Each structure stands twice: as structure tokens, then as C-alpha cells.
# Entry
Amino acid sequence: MGAAAPSRWLFSPAADLLAFGGSAALSFALLAVGWRLGLLDGDKADTPEWAWVAAVLLVDVAHVWSTLFRVYLDPAEFRRRPGTYLLVPAAGLVGGVALYDAGPAVFWRCLAYLAVFHFVRQQYGWVMLYRAKLGERTWRGLDAAAIYLATVYPLVYWHAHLPRRFAWFLRGDFAELPAVCAEVLEPVYWLTLAAYFARSAWGGFANPGKDVVVLTTAACWYVGVVWFDSDYAFTVTNVVIHGVPYFVLVYWYRWGRGESRPRGWHLRTAAAFVAVVWVLAFAEELLWDRLVWHDRDWLFGDGWDARQWRWLAVPLLALPQLTHYLLDGLVWRRRGNPGFTLAGR
# Structure
């Protein structure tokens, strides 16, 4: 009897399409809401509080904390590399304090570019996982170019059209580039994406999950960064397609593989997982607001005067996301994880 054909999905057909296509659809639905509310351009382009809670707090900040379940709350995984998993946050804190001592602007610029690298590499990682699922050996260069340009061209456009009405973390955390950089890269961007989808169509869309990742990444990043000059548009197109699939990945890796379990068990476990990371995200943002920002007393209460401690408070509060950025490229790398599987084989 021949070996079973490899699954072309990372999780399952429904889970993959919901994680990637569904998160992008949600982003565009939120854009439609923003259009109706006048949040896509002009003086009302800032992210309203309800959208900040839904997208930033409950998706972006919360997904960072899900790394706990992949590493620190997984005894088997932690035993594999205990030194690395303890050294990374310790080194991150020391490095963060040193950068903040060099100046808050230096700290935030370095953190912004590390975050950008993480966001770009995550989309590349999805494409490589889909290639590995089907054992693809050809067109690796085109796949890599397409997914990288889907994010890098909007970023170059952003750098070449500063200032914008949105920032990664704070105003001024990106360095300006000459406008010609975006002008030169634009035709390469369109030609590469056209070549990618022409090749995919010629092959009968044999790897649909990979195609959905490239399409949704290109659409969300272009619309959120290039098409609109709006903090709201950037927020809902950027963090939803980044955070939601990551939630699915962590959950599926920890509890979705292996033995079959009743649907009710999965619903309870997923609800508990999400509840824990939401509580941790709220606690983190409460400390950020009370110690540093002081701009959401309606949600977090009155701030504390901790100016003399910001040299420590800011690097310490940034440590969860810094650790997430640094570990993410390690824990999902197939080469260093011989037991790493998702759906099928």
C-alpha cells in the first residue's frame, strides 16, 4: 500500500482558510467600518479607542504572550533549551536598558526595526511552511521574492513618504529614505507578484494555502500602508493578519495535533488559552499606561509618576515583545525542531 499523500494544509482546510483568509476578511471589514466612520483619511484618521482595544490590546499585545505556551509553559520544550530560553530575556533586558540609556529615540527606533523584521519574517515563514508541507523543490526564489516584496515595498514606500499619519511605535521611529527608492522598487513589486500568481495559476493553484498567504499579505500591507494614510487603516490591516494566525499556530501546535479530542474540549481549552493571554495583555498595557503613557485613564485608571524609573520600566515592559521577536525565529524553525509537525506529515 502506497504512502499517504502529504497534506497541503498547515492545520486543516477550514482552519487555514479562517486563519489567513478570515483574518484578512476581518481586516477589510474593519476598513469598511472605518470608511463609514470617516477614519481612513483627514483629521479623523486616528485609531479610536474601541479599535485600539480590539486590534492592539486583544490581538497584537495578546499574541505576544502566547509565546508562553509555546516555550515557557511547555515543559518538554523548555527542557530542550533551558539556557537559551533563560538567556534571551536576560540579554534582552540588559540590551534594552543600554539602548534606553543611549536615548529613548534610539531605543524605540531599534525596537521598531526589530519588530518590522519580525513581521516580515513571519509572513515568509508561513510561505516556507507551506512549501515544506508539499515538499516543493522548485521556484523557491520566486516564492521568497513575492512574499518579501509584499511587505518590503510598502515599508520602503512608507520610509520614502515620511511623515505619515501613523507610526510603528512612536513618531520618528523610522529613518527617511529618498523617494526614488520606492519609485525604483514599485515595478519590481508588481512584476514579481504578477509572476508569482501567473506561475501558481499555470500549476493549477496546487498550494492554495501559500497563495492565500501571499495574496492577503500583499493586499493588507498595500492598502494599509500605501493606499491609505491613516493610523486606523494601518492598525487593522497590520495586526489582525499577524496576530490571529499566530494564535492558531500556537494553539494547534500545543493542543490540536495528535489524538482526536471532542469539540467541546477544544472550545474550552481555546477559551482558556485566549482568556489567559488577554488578561496578561491587559495587565501589561495597564502598567504601560500608568508608568509611561498616561493616555487611557478611562480604561486603566490614574497614572503614576515614575519618570525617574523609566530607564528600567520601559525596557522591562518591552521585554515580552522583545523576547517574542527573538524566540519566534528559533522555535518555529523546522531544522532545529525535528519533532515539528502540524497537520498530516
In short: The chain is about 75% helix and 0% strand. The first helix runs from residue 13 to 37. The radius of gyration is 21 Å.
